[in-house]
Design a protein that fits this description.
2 domains, three-stranded antiparallel β-sheet, 6 helices, about 30% helix
Length: about 240
């Protein structure tokens, strides 16, 4: 990814290379706020000004962007071992060879595919940066702005043509609350994995920084959601 190559270049003080890579990233995703912040820091450094991204006095929005940078840089080190099954995933659905595992602490979603030998651990096809609910994880009640923790099925897909622009390329609808959730007294609805609005690359986590009607959902970029929708067209829950 251009962003990670740009951060490597920054660490090595190759500002010209980093600037070119960030411009490439912004050509693909003009609303990538982290790339804009890094590019702004390069320009400030050349002008002899202190960093806004790493300065002592950060705005709330810049602090959130810095956290995103940290999670993205750490992503290669967070890949799960290839010789074990993810905790909570006992087997695959008989209707689909795909599964998605979200590391809520690392803000990373892993796309897994069933191995040819069912007893072998699944393969990681790809991993993506993901945002969780505004108030974190561990949903219990309607309106708590949290993303639920558990094992859920994708019940159906909704393409961008069927939804407001806020949901980007579409959404994968989850079966929360399922029977176990209801048994435990958990309430709520509308838990989706969905894309980003036209003017957003990754979702903000600052309360007043954006209007987000889906503050308890999982959120990925438009490009990632297009890939998921396209590759899961024939998949069943």
């Amino acid at each position: 990814m251009a962003l990670l190559r740009a951060t490597d270049a920054l660490i090595e003080a190759r500002l010209t290379d980093a600037e070119a890579l960030l411009h490439d990233a912004l050509k693909q995703e003009p609303h990538f706020r982290l790339a804009h912040a890094l590019l702004g820091d390069i320009l400030r450094a050349r002008s002899g000004l202190p960093s806004k991204l790493h300065g002592d006095e950060q705005s709330a929005a810049m602090s959130i962007i810095q956290q995103e940078l940290k999670h993205r840089i750490q992503a290669p080190e967070m890949l799960p071992p290839t010789d074990v099954w993810p905790q909570g995933l006992v087997s695959f659905s008989p209707f689909s060879p795909h599964a998605f595992v979200v590391d809520a602490q690392a803000l990373r979603m892993y796309w897994l595919r069933k191995n040819e030998r069912p007893e072998d651990p699944p393969r990681v096809i790809a991993s993506f940066y993901v945002s969780v609910g505004k108030a974190g994880v561990g949903k219990q009640t309607e309106g708590d702005n949290k993303t639920p923790l558990g094992v859920y099925h994708i019940t159906h897909r909704r393409t961008g043509r069927d939804l407001p622009a806020f949901y980007g390329a579409g959404a994968l609808v989850l079966d929360y609350p399922h029977a176990v959730d209801r048994l435990l007294g958990r309430t709520g609805s509308g838990i989706w994995l969905h894309g980003s609005p036209p003017n957003t690359y990754t979702r903000c986590r600052v309360p007043d920084d954006c209007i987000d009607p889906s503050r308890r959902a999982l959120f990925v970029s438009r490009a990632v959601m297009r890939e998921l929708i396209d590759n899961l067209r024939s998949a069943q829950p």
